[in-house]
Amino acid sequence: MDTAIKVFLSVLFFLCLLDMPYGYFQIVRFAALVGFALLAYNANEQGHKREVIIYVCLAILFQPLIKIALGRVVWNVVDVIVAIGLILSMFIKPKPL
Fold first, then answer.
1. At 81, which helix (H) or strand (E)?
2. Mean pLDDT, residues 18-32
3. How far apart are CA 8 and CA 43, in angstroms?
4. pLDDT tens track for 31-64
5. Contact 31/96 with Cβ under 8 angstroms?
6. Cβ pair 14, 83 in contact under 8 A
7. How far is CA 38 from the centre of its chain?
């Protein structure tokens, strides 16, 4: 299930590079909040504390309630970095603490 969430979020983040309506970005923020919360929960269940911290921080960054204004260019860079990180995390196994 983690792999499906990571692929889904990565696709959403890469699509943010296109000229999309503002509503799309709102949906992405909500989907990211839910997706990262689920990933954090699953990582916690597996005992991967570093991953929990990363996913909670990403959930806070992308949450739709209190918007963090970074500008379109910076958000595009963040989206690409997070998407690539999610893709890499599917192939790299974390070490438990």
1. helix 72-89
2. 91
3. 18
4. 999 999 999 999 999 888 999 999 999 999 999 8
5. no
6. yes
7. 11
Cα(10)–Cα(96) distance, integer angstroms = 24
> Which residues make Cβ contacts (< 8 Å) with residue 10, sequence separation at least 6?
83, 84, 86, 87
The CA distance from 8 to 5, in Å, is 5
Q: Which residue has the tokens 């379109």?
A: 72
- Structure token digits, residue 79: 């989206």
Task: Tokens 């192939």: give the residue.
Answer: 91
CA pair distance 82, 60, nearest whole angstrom: 13
> In the numeric block, which tokens belong to residue 57?
């921080």
Go through the chain and tell me how many residues it has.
97
* Coil vs helix vs strand at 4: helix
Q: How large is the angle between the packed helices 22-46 and 2-15, nearest 10 degrees? A: 150
User: Chain centroid to CA 53: how far?
Assistant: 13
| Residue found by looking up tokens 């911290």 in the block | 53
